[in-house]
Amino acid sequence: MSGEAKAHVQKRNATQFDLDRHARSLRCSDIARAARLADLEHATAHFLSLGAQTPNDVDAGMLEDYVWNLENSGVTVETVEQRLAAVSTYFAWLIRTHKPARGQDAMVNPVKGVRVAHTSSCPACKSQTNATTLKGECPVRDARLSAWLPSAFELSLTASSANTRAAYRRDVELFAEWMLDAGDDAAPHRVTKEDVRAYLAFLHDRGATSRTVARRIAALRRYYGWAIRRGMTAIDPTEAMHTPKTKGRLPRPLDEETVARLVTTHDPDAPAWRVARDRAALEILYGSGLRVSEVCSLELQSMSSDKTTLRVMGKGSKERIVPLSTPATEAISRWLTLRAEVADESSGNALLLSARGKPVGRRDVARLLDDACERAGIVGGTHPHALRHSFATHLMDNGADTRSIQELLGHSDAATTQRYTHVSKERLRLAYTESHPRA
What we know:
Among the domains are: 117 residues; 180 residues, hpI Integrase, Chain A. A two-stranded antiparallel ribbon has the order 1-2. The protein contains 19 helices and 2 strands. The chain has 439 residues and is mostly helical.
């Protein structure tokens, strides 16, 4: 059979997997849906090459072979886990929506029991602090994409925040993996401007926003500047590359009444320590306008002796002092009386702890906020950064000057803080439109 005929047969058999229908069932953004579908198409092509004609033919052995091939193809730890998770979600959906006929055994998820040889839970790979996604150096991880030296690049970004460094590294890794899919000899010095343009077109076809494309270009531009200084390549393929304009997005703050309802709600069935911890976290987020990563990294010694201020380590390792509101001070004092109930040897000096005694992470804060939104009746919920937006907007509405808000938020550029003047003007215009008889 010719190569063209084999491709035709594979394409026909792939329809038996019903991937498009599964993708439509996913509750996520278009770009995330396209990425998930691409991961599944990649896995399905592998299963078809092993002789599977339908999803029912896929067994654990095929999954193990797929994972083995991924781990030996040079892709990163995150990509292996991401693709395996996509396959697991697909089969869970398949089992849920395709009930067995009478007399037939129910299908078992073939991913169950399949393990990745090297995971992000590796002590060297996982985040070095609970508040950030900054990775450490790991020989196994760094052996993948070895020609690109992603760990060395990440460590070189000393002036950037940990989250920015991790995001830039991941952007470079995704580009390198895309290049590997195009050819086995992919390396930084082999990349041309045509390759970068083709990659940007690929992102656009997947539905990436201009903001996403702009960040990918920024990451690659930063990477090639570093690679040239290191002598890895002599040419920068991103030079003179057009960066798409991104539309400025105004923050969406909550009104004061909604915030008050949100931070004061509590779960009557939760243990006292959890109620106190959640209240302290929410009061700090709104009362001091901290980023969620800053809240997660707070320690006991971050508070002043009179418990009226916090010493915060912000982006770019910039330190600032922020005041604590009276409700926040009271909430923290209440939490500290109960902290010992969950604290253990792994707690260290972290101010806020999870149920397992470890410092709270970003997801812990997001979950407690989701629960609070549900109890407060906030349709659609909100996110931790919205409380920071609300903090700044309410200060602006009540007469605080831009310079003071800039200091409180830890913005290095006053232009960033100016966004909140636009928010306040919009609120004034809306109030005028709704209230004035001739508006």
